[in-house]
Amino acid sequence: MRKATVTRTTNETRITVSLTLDGTGTYDNQTGVGFFDHMLDQLARHAMLDMTVRCEGDLHIDDHHSVEDVGIAIGQALAQAVGDKAGINRYGSCLLPMDDALVRAALDISGRPFLVWNVDMPTAKIGTFDTELVREFFQAFSTHAGLTLHVDALHGFNSHHIAEAAFKAVARALRVALEADPRAAGAIPSTKGTL
Question: What values do phi and psi take at 54, rounded to 5?
């Protein structure tokens, strides 16, 4: 099975991520940031990843370091678990509605990290969570996973719905990209012969 465990320790956070790509969508995420845990649960469930995250961070300062560093660790775990990318679809996309929100995500497990983020949040906070941290998570995640990732919010006026639709859209796109291509016979999905 394609799986990895990553531990990341800094002066700001102590994180362990366990990730299984060929999972059933089970999750156990505990970062100390309630809304963020809810979003990580959505990521695991809709990408059909088995994911466990433990984070002890400097929440007395704010949530930034925890959210960003968890993104780094999950990205590193995904990159390790996917390996040489042989036989995968490589590309995935999703147009995901959630009530008023409609979010499009498209990604390439290319090894070339790049984030395009066209998502405006109507409010600065969702409860106590800073909405700008949604982008910070995906920036860290896409960089360390080696993803080209485009996320566009096409509609929405509720920040919770927009954020959740973004996580679910990326998850669904990731699920497609990580799945085996039955016609690829284990080949690297690139004319270069490597990714």
Answer: -125, 125
Among residues 69, 75, 152, 66, the alpha carbon closest in space to that of 106 is found at 152
pLDDT tens string 122-177: 999 999 999 999 999 999 999 999 999 999 999 999 999 999 999 999 999 999 99
Retrieve residue 100's tokens.
């008023």
Tally of CB atoms within 10 A around 68: 19
Confirm whether pTM is higher than 0.85.
yes
The answer to whether the beta carbons of residues 160 and 100 sit under 8 Å apart is no
Q: What is the rounded CA–CA span in Å between residue 100 and residue 155?
A: 7
Token pair listed for 179: 């799945």
Cβ burial, residue 21 (10 Å; 0-12/13-18/19+): buried
Q: How many CB atoms lie within 10 A of CB 190?
A: 12
What residues contact residue 183 under an 8 Å CB cut-off, 6+ apart?
none
Q: How far apart are CA 147 and CA 154, in angstroms?
A: 21
- How many other CB atoms are found less than 10 A from the CB of residue 44? 25
